[in-house]
Amino acid sequence: MEQSIVDFFEQWAEEFARAVEMFTGERPSLAQKLAERSQLEEWEAKRSDFQWWQQETEEPQKFKAWVGAREACWSALAGDQGEGSDAKDLFQEMLSQANQGAAAVLSSSFAAPVRFGSVVVNPPSSLLALRIAHVSVTFRDAQLPALIVALEPTAAKILDSPEPVSAVAPPAGTPPNAVAGNPTVNASMVERLMDLHLPVSVLLGQTVLPIREALKISSGSLIELDRQLGDYVEVMVHGTVVARGEIVAVKGNYGVRIKEVISRKDRFALRDAA
């Protein structure tokens, strides 16, 4: 099997374990094994026993990925997140984060990194022509039914053929160690930035009150906000909106499931409007 496909499966397992840990507080133990032809035929015969999620990469680097899971697996990994949570939706979010994370890592040197679109429930027409890994899952000391992760063969060509980031010539007289494209300098800067702490807040809503109304606020008072049930809340970093999402329950605490990331242009527009 192509090395880039093998690398994707390995990185996917790492990203999926991290996603499960983020939502549940516990990290599963995963072991992935590449499928042989005899196994493909066996799984093809049992394909309908699995729930299949499909995700496709965006233009121009198009290929599809599937993950198949039996209910006993996805419900065990995502089914104990408090009242109002949906195990299937949460598991789908875990899969999306695993795919996005693996693609981001493997295409980090590309001029245009590989990105996946939205997740849909859709089985592959056949497993026999796909590249497949069998991923065993142990979670909370229990062995769960294995996952099947599948990629279209075209993924290998895309992941093996990076379009390198074009180098920009530095101004005349710039010292070699100050060149922005210097990998050593960039790596050092990134390492220092990784330990910085940023204040992240979630804006549930806001309103405007006359001073006389504000002075009347006491324990038990109700303040109506400009949000309705089901509306997205805004995620802010240093007072700037960076994303929108929905409130979820995570192990008895509140969290935000990101649904939309704000572009840099939109962030500036929101900041200026404020």
Proportion of helical residues = 25-40%
CATH-derived topology of the largest domain: Chemotaxis protein chec
Strand content: 25-35%
Rg, rounded, reads: 23 Å
General shape: elongated
Q: Give unreliable regions as ranges.
A: 164-170
Topology:
Layout: H1 3-24, E1 29-34, H2 37-45, E2 51-57, E3 64-69, H3 71-78, H4 87-106, E4 116-121, E5 131-139, E6 142-151, H5 154-160, H6 183-193, E7 200-203, H7 211-215, E8 233-237, E9 240-250, E10 253-261, H8 264-273
Helix pairs in contact: 1-4, 3-4
What would you note in describing this structure?
By secondary structure, the chain is α+β, with helices and mostly antiparallel strands. It has 2 domains: 158 residues, Chemotaxis protein chec (3-Layer(aba) Sandwich); 78 residues, SpoA-like (Surface presentation of antigens (SPOA)), CATH 2.30.330.10. The protein contains 8 helices and 10 strands. Strand 8 and strand 9 form a beta hairpin. The longest helix has 22 residues. The chain starts with a helix and ends with a helix. 22% of the residues are buried. About 3% of the residues have low confidence.
What brief labels describe this structure?
single chain; 274 residues; alpha+beta; Chemotaxis protein chec; 2 domains; four-stranded antiparallel beta sheet; 34% helix
Summarize this, please?
With 274 residues, the chain is an alpha+beta fold.
